[in-house]
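We close this part of the discussion by returning to an individual protein. Part of our work consisted of pairing the sequence of a single chain with a tokenised description of its backbone. The amino acid sequence and the backbone structure tokens for this protein are reproduced below.
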Amino acid sequence: MDEENDGLLRSLRGLCIGMYNKKACGALTGGACALSLHLEGASLVETCRDLAEWFEQRFGGIDCKDLIGAASAPAMVCVDIVRETCEKCLEMLMEKDCL
């Protein structure tokens, strides 16, 4: 969006490692937040559902405990998941002519 918002970025840190309790992956919830910046109403609901479905199929779950398991360095697993989820969100937004 060609904007800087340090407060927004700081607020999203709470999503890391499934809100620090290995629950819903922050890449997925962060993706939903990103979609919310551009979509609303039924389009947002549909796109978030599609994202969650894609995410679960692609990575085999939505909770960090299932995605990173007992990884001693979860960040190594997370980098690829975050990257792919960002790419998917951008693809979805481009399909809706939001970018």
